[in-house]
Design brief:
Number of helices: 6
CATH superfamily of the largest domain: Pseudouridine synthase
CATH topology of the largest domain: Pseudouridine synthase
Number of domains: 2
Shape: globular
Helix content: 10-25%
Largest sheet: 9 strands, mixed
Order of helices and strands: EHHEEEEEHEHEEEEEEHEEH
Number of strands: 15
């Protein structure tokens, strides 16, 4: 269930607020709410400045009147929903699931149901609470339109030990990606910091000197007409990392229009997702320390889209 919408609010921009972005002022005046929620309200027309709908980037003038009509709030905790779920591996500590493209991992940014967390709660009941009531069991994430292996902790002890492995970069994460163009060479490494794009806030960028350190190693698996099929190993887990890194060298992931891929490819049907798949995760059992590797085969729709011959193995080298 959602919380009832809070009452409407009205306040005036003070002289010191002149020149501030609208979303920045709302964040200062309404610290209870997240930046993404406030931006969502602005884009939905629930925020007006002197009676007019403005963009989040609108620069305020002193004494302008800001009216806010909040929407209903997201549920305080995730609830179980009967949603199909493919399990790749399970033991007493964790479960590895095969997340389909299009499914959001947990609630947020206007998505409050139909998430992987809702499906997990229906299938398994109690999960680790380290991540809070809206993110039970979630140790790491995949982008909405990326598919593949994702680990979920069943209890708090397992969650903390898995999180420590991720933080120490002891978890091997191997992806399959189809990118536009022909990569120069058979393998390479991209080592560029990743930061929030200062202009387009929904994007990340690897074109600034500042940001969080990140590296991605790629290897060519197959060369196709206009595309290169890659395995990509990442040593860090920054937001949109593979998508940003590959785009930064002129080879955006197919289907990823946010980072430069064309919306249409001649002779191909709409992809409606990123051609990016979490193929394998290798880690150590939180309880025994034994090595565990979980593999998710390339989804059939991706193999069909790039005309991968039937039966051709997709096995990136170690």
């Amino acid at each position: 269930m959602t919380e009832p919408a809070p009452p409407a609010l009205r306040f005036a921009a003070e002289p010191d607020d002149a020149g501030k972005r609208l979303d920045q002022l709302l964040r200062e005046r309404l610290p209870r709410y997240s930046r993404s929620r406030l931006q969502e309200w602005i884009r939905a027309g629930r925020v007006q400045v002197d009676g007019q709908i403005r963009r989040p980037s609108y620069l305020l003038r002193a004494r302008e009147i800001v009216d806010v009509v909040p929407a209903e709030l997201a549920p305080l905790r995730a609830t179980p929903e009967e949603i199909p779920l493919a399990v790749l591996y399970e033991d007493d500590d964790l479960v590895a699931v095969d997340k389909p493209a299009g499914m959001v991992v947990h609630a947020g940014a206007g998505v409050h149901s139909g998430t992987l967390v809702n499906a997990l709660l229906h299938r398994f009941g109690a999960l680790s609470q380290v991540g809070g009531d809206l993110r039970p069991g979630i140790v790491h994430r995949l982008d909405r339109y990326t598919s593949g292996v994702l680990l979920v902790a069943k209890n708090d002890a397992a969650h903390r030990r898995l999180a420590a492995q991720f933080a120490a970069r002891q978890v091997e994460k191997l992806y399959l990606a189809l990118v536009h163009g022909h990569m120069q060479g058979d393998s390479g490494r991209i080592e560029r910091p990743i930061a929030r794009d200062p202009v387009r806030r929904t994007r990340m960028t690897a074109r600034l000197e500042s940001g969080r350190a990140a590296w991605s190693e790629w290897q060519v698996l197959r060369r196709l007409d206009g595309f290169t099929f890659l395995s990509v190993r990442i040593g860090t887990g920054r937001t949109h990392q593979i998508r940003v890194h590959l785009s930064s060298i002129g080879h955006p992931v197919a289907g990823d229009t946010l980072y430069g891929a064309p919306a249409k490819v001649e002779g191909k049907p709409p992809l409606n997702r990123f051609f990016l798949h979490s193929y394998r995760i290798r880690f150590r059992s939180p309880s025994t320390g034994a090595e565990i590797a979980v593999v998710s085969p390339l989804p059939r729709e991706l193999g069909d889209w790039m005309d991968l011959p039937a039966g051709l193995p997709v096995l990136p080298s170690d």
